Amino acid sequence: MSKEQIGALWMISASVAYGFMPIWTVLGQNSGLTTDFILFFRFACTSVLLLALARLEKVPILLPKRKILEFVFLGGILYSIQSFAYLDSLKYIQTALSVMLYHIYPLIVTLVALVFFKEKIQLKTLLALALCIIGLIVILQIPKDIALSPLGVALSLIGALFYGLYIIFSQRITRNCHFLVSSFYVCFFSSLAMLFSMLKALNSIPNLFEIPPIGIFSLLALAIFSTLFAMVAYYLGMPKVGITKTAILGMIEPLVSVVLSIWILGNHLSALQYFGAFLISCGAILLCLRR
C-alpha cells in the first residue's frame, strides 16, 4: 500500500471512531449519567493515557507558561464548551438531527475567515455556503409527529460554533507541538472544566457502584475508542493525505453517526431532512476543497 492509502485508512478509522461518539454518549445518558460526568471521564481518562503514551515515546510534555495558558483557552474553554453543548443536545433532539446540525461547522469556519481574515469570496465558496444554508433550513422542517426542542437545536448549533472557533485557534496554538502533547493539554484542561462543572452541581457526581454495565461500557468505549484511538489515528493519517482529503474523509463521521442512530437508537428523519443532510454534506465538502 502507498503512503497515501495508509493515511486514508487511518483517517477513515478516525472518522468511524468519532462517529460512534454520540451513540456512546446517549447510552451513557440513558444509564443515568450526566453529560458533564461523561465528558469528565472521557477527558480525564484520555489525558492519562496520552501522558503515558508521551512518556513511552519519550516526548517532552512540559511547555512554556504562555503556551500552557493558550491551551487553557483552547481546551478549558473552546473545546469543553463545544463538547458539552453538542453532547448535551442529544438529550433534547434526535441524535441524527443533532449530528447533522453540528456538522455545519465548516460553514462557520468559512464565514469567520471571510469576515475577520478578509479571505476572498470565490464562486465555489458562495455555492458551498448556499448549499449549507439551504440544507440547514430544509433539515429543520420537522415532521408534525416529531417534537422539536429549540434548546436541543440551539445547543447543537452552539457546539458547531465553538468547534469552528476551536479549529481556527488550534491551527496557531498547536503549531510546532507534538500531537501527543497538544492532545494531552486539550483533554487535560477540558477535564478540569468538566470537573468544575460537576462540583458546582453535586448531583452530577454518580455513585460509581450504581452505574449499570452498559453505562460503564459506554464510558470506556467513549474514552478509549472514540477519543484516544480517534485522536491518534487522525494525527497519523493527516500528514499522509493532506488537509483537503482529511476534511473530506472526515465527512464519513456524520454518516456513521446517522446510520448508527437509526440502527441502534431507532431514530428516523423524513426524506426531506435526508435531502437537507445531503445538501449540508455537499456544501461542507466544497468548503473543504476550497481550503
Textual characterization of the structure:
By secondary structure, this protein is mainly alpha-helical. It contains 13 helices and no strands. It has helices at residues 3-19, 21-30, 35-56, 65-89, 95-102, 105-116, 123-139, 150-173, 179-200, 213-241, 243-249, 252-263, 271-290. The mean pLDDT is 84.
Describe the structure concisely.
The protein has about 290 residues and is mostly helical.
Order of helices and strands: HHHHHHHHHHHHH
Structural class by SSE content: mainly alpha
Q: Helical content, roughly?
A: over 70%
**Count of individual helical segments:** 13
What profile does the largest beta sheet have?
none
What overall geometry do the principal axes of the alpha carbons give? globular
Radius of gyration, CA atoms, in whole angstroms: 19 Å
Terminal-residue CA separation: 27 Å
Average pLDDT, all residues = 84
Give the DSSP E fraction (strand runs of 2 or more residues).
Answer: under 5%
Q: Which consecutive residue ranges, at least 5 long each, have pLDDT under 50?
A: none
Number of beta strands: 0
Oligomer: single chain
Please tag this protein with its features.
291 residues; mainly alpha; globular
Please write out the topology.
Layout: H1 3-19, H2 21-30, H3 35-56, H4 65-89, H5 95-102, H6 105-116, H7 123-139, H8 150-173, H9 179-200, H10 213-241, H11 243-249, H12 252-263, H13 271-290
